[in-house]
Amino acid sequence: MRTMGNKKGYLIDLNATINQLRKSVISRLKMKTSHKITYSFLFVMKKLMSALSTKTRYCFASRLASLSYHYIPKRKGQVVKNLHRAFPEWSDLKVENHVKKIYLFFTHNMIQFFAFPKSWAGIEIEISGKDVLDSTMTHGKGCVLVSAHFGVWELFAKWMGEYGTRFVGIAHRQKNRGANRFFQEQRELAGGEHIFRKEPLEKMYDVLKNNGILALVSDQDAKRKGIFVDFFGTPSSTPKGAALFHQKSGAPMVFGVCIQTGFQKYRIEFVPIISKSDSTQDITQAFTFIIEEKVRQYPEQYFWFHRRWKTKQD
To answer: How confident is the model at residue 6 (pLDDT cuts 50, 70, 90)?
Structure first.
């Protein structure tokens, strides 16, 4: 944080704040009416969830998860299919029990996210492998941080935003401008930033050049643009962007996630990504193996709703 005594630094901060407000106003003016309604609805939800106690939010999430499981079947079949594919030895009953846990886990974390920053109160976070991240940042080349749709990634981004180094996540811009604005505002409360896909690559490389942390969530089906690596014994199209950023910038790679270990208790883990070679294939396989290892340990904390094996290898 720059001080008032540093006049130039203060003016830079002031100018950045003004630009941010200007962009926010312009963004809202450009919204369609339906998008403005979406933003207003989400903002009201934030206020309502923030007004509830921690235990009340959990009870509400439990009921909402149960309703979604029983009466909103969209994607539930995909979850069941994915679990059977990943764990063929599981019985139907075990799969069903895990599906219920998955619904509760992600519903509760959605409610907690809506209540940011109120929901940060009272949480306990244990850090494992922080020395891995600290050591990486001493090289002065930045860090390519790989994560997954696993655990409490919104809380992970919150911790990273407070780490003390510029933290920028590459995100997909939502078509609904109201929803996009709301989620971006919530995620940037702790100081993190966004760069959206299809923005100039130079912006992303600049983060690394200035010894910042560039984060990519790299576990969804990447269609024909991806590279096929093994995931739960099946060739899976996987984003290769993280490997390419590492190869072209020389920035070290680290894998990071936030795991829920109990009620209001979490553990953030950092693991070095060590590849057999510097090939895109081997690098991508290396972090995909780490993701699989974490998912096997905590299967109820993985986002099984997406079609991970949608693209078939020729």
So the answer is: very low
